[in-house]
Amino acid sequence: MSAGTGAAIAQQQASQDVGAERRSLMRQQLQAVRAIAPVVRNGGDPRSVQQQAESLLTIGKRKLELFPPGSDRDDDRARPEIWTNRAEFDRIGQDMIEAAQRLAAAAAAGDRAAFQAAFEASTAACSACHERFQFPRR
Ligand code: HEC
Questions:
Q1: Residue ranges of the chain with pLDDT lower than 70?
Q2: CA of 71 to the centre of ligand 1 (A)
Q3: From the alpha carbon of 27, which atom of ligand 1 is closest?
Q4: Domains and CATH numbers, the chain
Q5: Could you tell me the sign of the dihedral formed by the alpha carbons of 43, 111, 34, 96, in that order?
Protein backbone atom coordinates (compact mmCIF):
# COMPACT_ATOMS: atom_id res chain seq x y z
CA MET A 1 0.00 0.00 0.00
CA SER A 2 1.42 3.39 -0.94
CA ALA A 3 1.67 6.18 1.60
CA GLY A 4 -0.91 8.12 -0.43
CA THR A 5 -3.48 5.34 -0.17
CA GLY A 6 -2.84 5.04 3.55
CA ALA A 7 -3.47 8.74 4.01
CA ALA A 8 -6.66 8.56 1.95
CA ILE A 9 -7.95 5.69 4.07
CA ALA A 10 -7.03 7.51 7.29
CA GLN A 11 -8.92 10.56 6.07
CA GLN A 12 -11.97 8.50 5.16
CA GLN A 13 -11.87 6.85 8.58
CA ALA A 14 -11.69 10.26 10.25
CA SER A 15 -14.70 11.57 8.34
CA GLN A 16 -16.64 8.46 9.30
CA ASP A 17 -15.90 9.08 12.97
CA VAL A 18 -16.76 12.76 12.84
CA GLY A 19 -20.02 12.01 11.03
CA ALA A 20 -21.01 9.40 13.58
CA GLU A 21 -20.17 11.74 16.42
CA ARG A 22 -22.18 14.67 15.03
CA ARG A 23 -25.22 12.48 14.43
CA SER A 24 -24.96 11.04 17.93
CA LEU A 25 -24.86 14.58 19.36
CA MET A 26 -27.80 15.60 17.16
CA ARG A 27 -29.82 12.71 18.58
CA GLN A 28 -28.90 13.80 22.11
CA GLN A 29 -30.21 17.26 21.24
CA LEU A 30 -33.46 15.75 20.10
CA GLN A 31 -33.75 13.86 23.41
CA ALA A 32 -33.21 17.09 25.32
CA VAL A 33 -35.85 18.85 23.22
CA ARG A 34 -38.30 16.00 23.85
CA ALA A 35 -37.70 16.21 27.59
CA ILE A 36 -38.15 19.98 27.64
CA ALA A 37 -41.21 20.26 25.34
CA PRO A 38 -43.82 18.92 27.82
CA VAL A 39 -42.51 21.21 30.55
CA VAL A 40 -42.99 24.19 28.24
CA ARG A 41 -46.40 22.96 27.09
CA ASN A 42 -47.70 22.32 30.60
CA GLY A 43 -46.19 25.43 32.16
CA GLY A 44 -44.00 23.31 34.44
CA ASP A 45 -40.96 24.42 36.39
CA PRO A 46 -38.05 25.00 33.99
CA ARG A 47 -35.61 24.17 36.78
CA SER A 48 -36.64 20.52 36.40
CA VAL A 49 -35.01 20.43 32.95
CA GLN A 50 -32.06 22.69 33.60
CA GLN A 51 -29.68 19.86 32.84
CA GLN A 52 -31.23 19.30 29.40
CA ALA A 53 -31.11 23.03 28.67
CA GLU A 54 -27.42 23.06 29.52
CA SER A 55 -26.82 20.03 27.38
CA LEU A 56 -28.36 21.87 24.38
CA LEU A 57 -25.88 24.65 24.96
CA THR A 58 -22.86 22.36 25.30
CA ILE A 59 -23.80 20.34 22.22
CA GLY A 60 -24.75 23.46 20.27
CA LYS A 61 -21.18 24.71 20.63
CA ARG A 62 -19.48 21.38 20.06
CA LYS A 63 -21.39 20.30 16.99
CA LEU A 64 -20.22 23.18 14.79
CA GLU A 65 -16.72 21.69 15.03
CA LEU A 66 -17.96 18.36 13.69
CA PHE A 67 -18.52 19.47 10.11
CA PRO A 68 -14.96 19.76 8.78
CA PRO A 69 -14.64 20.19 4.99
CA GLY A 70 -14.75 16.86 3.18
CA SER A 71 -16.68 15.08 5.93
CA ASP A 72 -19.83 14.51 3.88
CA ARG A 73 -20.39 10.98 2.74
CA ASP A 74 -22.90 9.33 0.44
CA ASP A 75 -24.84 7.78 3.29
CA ASP A 76 -25.23 10.81 5.51
CA ARG A 77 -27.68 13.69 5.27
CA ALA A 78 -25.29 16.61 5.37
CA ARG A 79 -25.87 18.80 2.31
CA PRO A 80 -22.84 20.07 0.39
CA GLU A 81 -24.15 23.63 0.95
CA ILE A 82 -22.70 23.37 4.49
CA TRP A 83 -19.29 23.78 2.91
CA THR A 84 -20.21 26.14 0.09
CA ASN A 85 -22.22 28.42 2.37
CA ARG A 86 -20.43 27.97 5.64
CA ALA A 87 -21.11 31.49 6.91
CA GLU A 88 -24.87 30.89 6.80
CA PHE A 89 -24.50 27.47 8.43
CA ASP A 90 -22.42 28.93 11.24
CA ARG A 91 -24.81 31.86 11.65
CA ILE A 92 -27.77 29.54 12.26
CA GLY A 93 -25.58 27.45 14.55
CA GLN A 94 -24.72 30.63 16.46
CA ASP A 95 -28.43 31.55 16.71
CA MET A 96 -29.03 28.20 18.33
CA ILE A 97 -26.16 28.69 20.78
CA GLU A 98 -27.50 32.09 21.81
CA ALA A 99 -31.03 30.74 22.25
CA ALA A 100 -29.68 27.82 24.30
CA GLN A 101 -27.74 30.28 26.45
CA ARG A 102 -30.98 32.14 27.23
CA LEU A 103 -32.71 28.80 27.79
CA ALA A 104 -30.14 27.61 30.34
CA ALA A 105 -30.21 30.98 32.13
CA ALA A 106 -34.02 30.99 32.28
CA ALA A 107 -34.00 27.42 33.62
CA ALA A 108 -31.55 28.37 36.36
CA ALA A 109 -33.69 31.39 37.24
CA GLY A 110 -36.95 29.43 37.07
CA ASP A 111 -38.30 32.08 34.65
CA ARG A 112 -41.12 30.36 32.77
CA ALA A 113 -41.86 33.10 30.21
CA ALA A 114 -38.21 33.54 29.26
CA PHE A 115 -37.80 29.77 29.15
CA GLN A 116 -40.69 29.33 26.76
CA ALA A 117 -39.45 32.08 24.43
CA ALA A 118 -35.91 30.69 24.43
CA PHE A 119 -37.19 27.18 23.74
CA GLU A 120 -39.13 28.41 20.72
CA ALA A 121 -36.03 30.22 19.43
CA SER A 122 -33.87 27.13 19.98
CA THR A 123 -36.15 24.76 18.10
CA ALA A 124 -36.69 27.35 15.34
CA ALA A 125 -32.91 27.25 14.81
CA CYS A 126 -32.98 23.42 14.58
CA SER A 127 -35.62 23.63 11.83
CA ALA A 128 -33.98 26.53 10.02
CA CYS A 129 -30.72 24.64 9.79
CA HIS A 130 -32.28 21.32 8.79
CA GLU A 131 -34.38 22.95 6.05
CA ARG A 132 -31.30 24.36 4.39
CA PHE A 133 -28.53 21.97 5.28
CA GLN A 134 -29.92 18.50 5.93
CA PHE A 135 -31.16 16.19 3.20
CA PRO A 136 -34.59 14.72 3.93
CA ARG A 137 -34.55 11.12 5.11
CA ARG A 138 -33.61 8.83 2.21
C1 HEC B 1 -26.27 24.61 12.27
C2 HEC B 1 -27.12 23.56 11.73
C3 HEC B 1 -27.91 22.65 12.62
C4 HEC B 1 -28.54 22.95 13.79
C5 HEC B 1 -28.63 24.30 14.53
C6 HEC B 1 -29.18 21.73 14.24
N7 HEC B 1 -28.94 20.71 13.36
FE8 HEC B 1 -29.56 18.78 13.54
N9 HEC B 1 -28.58 18.30 11.83
C10 HEC B 1 -27.88 19.18 11.02
C11 HEC B 1 -27.29 18.45 9.90
C12 HEC B 1 -26.45 19.05 8.78
C13 HEC B 1 -27.65 17.10 10.06
C14 HEC B 1 -27.24 15.91 9.16
C15 HEC B 1 -25.92 15.33 9.70
C16 HEC B 1 -25.44 14.05 9.03
O17 HEC B 1 -26.25 13.34 8.40
O18 HEC B 1 -24.24 13.75 9.18
C19 HEC B 1 -28.48 17.05 11.28
C20 HEC B 1 -29.05 15.88 11.79
C21 HEC B 1 -29.89 15.81 12.88
C22 HEC B 1 -30.56 14.61 13.35
C23 HEC B 1 -30.46 13.22 12.70
C24 HEC B 1 -29.29 12.46 13.31
C25 HEC B 1 -29.08 11.08 12.68
O26 HEC B 1 -28.98 10.12 13.44
O27 HEC B 1 -29.04 10.98 11.44
C28 HEC B 1 -31.30 14.95 14.45
C29 HEC B 1 -32.19 14.05 15.31
C30 HEC B 1 -31.09 16.38 14.68
N31 HEC B 1 -30.24 16.87 13.71
C32 HEC B 1 -31.67 17.10 15.71
C33 HEC B 1 -31.42 18.46 15.96
C34 HEC B 1 -32.06 19.23 17.01
C35 HEC B 1 -33.08 18.70 17.99
C36 HEC B 1 -31.56 20.51 16.92
C37 HEC B 1 -31.88 21.73 17.76
C38 HEC B 1 -31.89 21.61 19.18
C39 HEC B 1 -30.63 20.53 15.80
N40 HEC B 1 -30.58 19.28 15.24
C41 HEC B 1 -29.94 21.64 15.41
C42 HEC B 1 -27.73 20.53 11.23
C43 HEC B 1 -28.17 21.23 12.34
A1: 1-3, 138
A2: 15
A3: 29
A4: 3-133 (1.20.120.10)
A5: positive
Contact 124, 102 (CB under 8 A): no
Q: Is 33 in the pocket of ligand 1 (CB under 6 A)?
A: yes
State the pLDDT at residue 138: 64
Asked if 67 contacts 78 with a C-beta cutoff of 8 angstroms, the reply is yes
Distance of CA 94 to the CA centre of its chain: 10
Instruction: Decide whether any atom of ligand 1 lies within 6 Å of the 63 Cβ.
Output: no
pLDDT at 56: 98
Distances (CA, A) of 45 to 15, 50, 103, 113: 41, 9, 13, 11
| Ligand 1 mutation target, pool 59, 119, 134, most atoms within 8 A of CB | 134
Q: What is the pLDDT of residue 22?
A: 94
